[in-house]
Backbone:
């Protein structure tokens, strides 16, 4: 495998998080990581207003440019991660004989309705099969406004970087699970545990099945909310879960232990930053000054983009 450099950037409510990697024969080396506060909460639905608001756009470009002026970067390509609540992410029942052409227009309508954006807003839509419910098939819908994608692509192009992909956080983690041992194909639950949202999906026989997101009312109910979202996904699949992975701000060891106690299955904290090499001890110490989950999304986006 040729030597490759790639940047991952996560857009959160309060900051941009950047990881630059070098990959050679599967070995990942973190060259640089950093956290950069933003003027506005871009990691939210506000992101979709930026292309239409000159002041917001100016702030976004200013905040983004700070990341690249601090130190020189080797990579010319990047992948961007947006939080689940900044995308349209849901599972829809679809009639078995729904014509594909009509389905695409229906999905556009669903995206506009669920996002609350003006009628006529066009979305870039990704779908996949997500199980069945009675005589209806279920389709996962992941949508981003095309204007948002165009703005991000143009902005980073102006800053001399090519946008390789724009990822939705839960789907990114789901696609980057560590390979199971001995070539096995266990059924795995993927749980995203965030401040205001829990997301769940199942990966069975290496194929994702379903997804459910549920709002978190209070910190005391977060574990219960995560279990509720997981049970909702399990209703539409025959899979029996063998293990689970948790990620996100609240996917810590305490959450892992409590989930394992309730479900009776192994539950692992998905923390890919633990498995990488750093270019220098100073860079490792810098990353270690932040909570363990901080750079995981940006790192996974960079690794996926470089692979």
Residues:
């Amino acid at each position: 495998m040729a030597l490759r450099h790639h940047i991952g950037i996560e857009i959160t409510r309060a900051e941009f998080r950047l990881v630059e990697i070098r990959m050679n024969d599967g070995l990942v080396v973190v060259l640089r990581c950093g956290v950069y506060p933003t003027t506005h909460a871009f990691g939210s639905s506000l992101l979709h207003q930026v292309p239409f608001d000159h002041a917001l756009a100016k702030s976004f470009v200013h905040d983004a440019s700070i990341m690249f002026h601090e130190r020189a970067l080797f990579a010319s390509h990047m992948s961007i991660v947006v939080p689940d609540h900044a995308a349209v992410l849901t599972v829809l029942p679809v009639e078995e004989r729904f014509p594909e052409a009509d389905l695409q227009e229906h999905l556009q309508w669903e995206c506009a309705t669920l996002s609350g954006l003006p009628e006529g807003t066009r979305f870039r839509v990704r779908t996949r099969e997500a199980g069945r419910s009675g005589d209806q098939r279920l389709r996962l819908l992941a949508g981003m406004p095309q204007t948002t994608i165009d703005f991000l692509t143009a902005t980073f192009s102006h800053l001399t970087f090519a946008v390789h992909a724009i990822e939705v956080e839960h789907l990114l983690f789901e696609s980057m699970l560590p390979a199971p041992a001995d070539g096995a194909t266990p059924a795995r639950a993927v749980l995203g545990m965030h401040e205001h949202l829990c997301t769940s999906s199942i990966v069975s026989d290496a194929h994702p099945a379903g997804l459910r997101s549920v709002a978190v009312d209070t910190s005391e109910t977060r574990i219960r909310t995560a279990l509720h979202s997981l049970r909702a996904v399990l209703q539409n699949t025959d899979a029996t879960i063998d293990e689970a992975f948790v990620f996100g701000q609240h996917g810590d060891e305490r959450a892992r232990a409590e989930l394992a106690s309730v479900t009776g299955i192994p539950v692992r904290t998905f923390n890919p930053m633990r498995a990488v090499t750093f270019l220098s001890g100073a860079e490792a110490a810098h990353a270690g000054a932040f909570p363990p989950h901080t750079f995981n999304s940006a790192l996974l986006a960079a690794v996926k983009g470089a692979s």
Summary: Residues 138 and 239 are 16 Å apart (CA to CA). The longest strand covers residues 27-37.
